[in-house]
Amino acid sequence: MTKTCLHRRSFLQVTALAGGGLLLGLYPKAAALAQMGRGPEVLNPTDFIRIGADGVVTLTSKNTEIGQNVYNTLPMLIAEELDVDWKDVRLVRADADAKYGNQFTGGSSATPSNWEPMRRVGAAGRQMLIAAAASTWGVAESECATASGRVFHRASNRSLSYGELAAKAATMPAPDLRSVKLKDPKDYKIIGTSTISVESKEIVTGKPIFNIDVQVPGMLYAVMQRTPVMGGKVASANLDVIKAMKGVKAAFIIEGRPLPNNYPNYLFEDAGFEAGVAIVADSWWAAQKARESLEVKWDAGKWGAQNSEEMARRAVELSQQTPQRTLRNDGDVESIFKRDDVKIIESNYVFPFIAHATMEPQNCTAHYKDGRIEIWYAGQIPQTGRTMVARLLNLPEKDVTVHVVRGGGGFGRRAYNDLMLDAAWISRQVNAPVKLLWSREDDIQHDYYRCGGFQFMKAAVDKDGRLVAWHDHFVGYGEGNAFAHDGGFMPTEFPARFVPNYRVQSSVMGLGLKTGALRAPYSNSTAWVIHSFLDELAHAAGKDPLQFRLDLLAHPLPVEANNNNRMPPGLDPARMSGVLKLVAEKSGWGKRQLPKGTGLGVAFHFSHRGYFAEVAEVTVQTNKKIKVNKVWVAGDIGSHIINPSSAETQVQGAVIDGLSELIQEITLKNGAVAQSNYHQHPMLRMSQAPPQIEVHWLKTNNPPTGLGEPALPPILPAVCNAIFAATGERIRTLPMMKQGFSFA
Amino acid sequence: MIKLKVNGKNQQFDGDPEMPLLWYLRDEIDLKGTKFGCGMGLCGACTVHINGQPMRACSTPMSAVADQTVTTIEGLSPDGTHPVQIAWQELDVPQCGYCQAGQIMSACALLAKTPKPTDAQIDAAMNGNLCRCGTYLRIRAAIHKAAELTASKAETKPAAAPKASRAGSRLMPNKK
Lengths: 744, 176
Fold this sequence. Notes:
The structure holds two protein chains of two kinds. Chain A is of the alpha+beta class. Chain A starts with about 30 loop residues before the first helix and ends with a strand. By secondary structure, chain B is α+β, with helices and mostly antiparallel strands. Chain B is built from five helices and five strands. In chain B, helix 2 crosses helix 5 and helix 3 packs across helix 4. Classes of the chains: A alpha+beta, B alpha+beta. Chains A and B meet through strand 3, helix 5, helix 7 and helix 16 of A and helix 1, helix 2, helix 3, helix 4 and helix 5 of B.
């Protein structure tokens, strides 16, 4: 599985030195991206483009493929500006290395943070090939043109292929990437076309391309029994029994490290090394079987008594007390609530912890030898993982090589580098290459869970049916001013800025569970609460739910100057109204007669720079079995859909993923996760999926943005609102089975 | 000693008879196309054919496959041109791709019995195969497409190689 290729042909060499570099800070306002950035200030095109004498173009794909087809997407941008045919392009994966810039794969950031840099890399390569041709012919560069991997001089009817020019191009001075000329979008030949995953054939023929398939000569297999309670320790274990078992090569305790204080951001803080027992054997089955005989006495530590029921009870208690913090307070909510000419609506919403449960269980292969380590991991933030491993093993970073491999799903889970740390540690301990592979039970019980929460909502509508006050007491987890990682609330969320009196307050309780980013973090719960409650307000106001939302969007208040949150400021109402109107038109909103027991629901959400509005048609059968008949999605992610086939399937997948979140729940019992496998943490099956999910794009004059995440959040409230339209029953607690609903 | 046939090849195994077939395939004879998902027969990622029937390799002990015939994704066709494999590529079905070997094996078993399945028959046959990325709509469409390809193949000539992306030819990555 090594990704090293020996290139014996001549390659395009570009020396990008001072002045020839590309500044990464092309979107300086995107604070979130800046925070993720750990790369160098310059990108060198030679790290991305190689052209052989035979004209074969090899491009390096820098981000991690976990199902979003980014392996194609970023090289498509280079190929477009390099002006080569996609059929002549080959791809290689980048190892984790700062020379590729920021390899952060998450937050739907690949497109917005690479749209311009990758095109400029391609354009720089093209410019050097033109310079080589112009010099060969003794003509001006401005007289030359390119197409399909050739440079043309029309006046003299001459042309040379890129392959013929590659060696000479390597000697040309590097252009300044900031000023290279980019194509007029009307000339795009690759951007905007559907290219199927270049690994499609490998996938359908079962080639060993996934993380779990990595094979290193002499490799051993490891399992790990981690502490069931966060921060727990191993008091004792029957290691002698385990070591004597067939196939077992080693069994040892991993002490782990004390937990960091105060709810760290596990993405970047070195917090992922927990206590447990590792068993290493000559086959995975032998290691896993030995584990059945493993007896561990745990010291559970401070979180051993934690239970979900108690946490829910505590949340209600906190809701009745003065909120601990005020996150935002516009206008005067209380004075509106005292008026007797407004209608007051109060509702409580509850959403659970949920697990990522990627189809490929977490795994990592590591090979420690002579003070160096080589790692194979489908990590979403591989450079950070590399740094963490270097720190854990006390090695210089140059002696840590991280090969990024294809992952069987990520959804945020592979943004956490805990498996790298465990595998690296175990490999060093046994001084051999080791594949650490988790069982599904390990995977579900040791996740960085989507954080649960409780929202106590109160709002007022006036006589004209206008929303005049909005109050949200968010009760979550954390301590003091710190929320559990990715478990807080963004006080910039709609309808902030669209209602004159708007207040969000919060209270937290302690939590002994690691939390983290699950596809569309924050938004996947926030959108459900906000758009379910907005639906209640529309009905209370006697207005059509879609028109109620359009009316709200029509009256934005000025943007707050003191917006210091890490997400970009709130949504652009024009763009959101655009997708809302489009989805209304496509779904025939308000124009269709539906049978009894069938309803339409609508919701929208702005997240990860994307604008999405969705309508669901749902039939509720007797005994509360629901069938989602059809979903209409309208999205605005800017001026271009880079790969339409991938874009459509991402959106359809996001809808189905979101529907699964209506039936998932992780609970704690005595500090440990109570669920263990798919029977207790289900996901949608084919017969439960909507037979049709229509995807419509509204192209607007904005830079293209990402798609992994923003299509997901609206589907949860759209379906719950449709259930209300069909039955008059409002779902305020997830999973929906708590109110008796399930998928037919 | 357990004797079995895998993808047309005779094999012998004298290890732990309780070991699931999945680990034999993956780690003993290096057929890594069959995937580990849940270990309990809940997700279908490990689906193989045993005597033509779709079975979950993760919960089939080696003792149960003595003298049986096993087909894995690698044995479906010599060159990846089974109509289901072609349809899967034409319709750009995979996202992460991890579950797709199991999906394809279930689909092939369905089509072998039911050459022109209805949506309901597809749902019934495929409901044991989870897809975390949510590619169900394209899987369903690809099964219909494969049924068409098979029917037209029976009538005329062999199925064409997968049509490329709408942009041009599909491409293959550089591999060692």
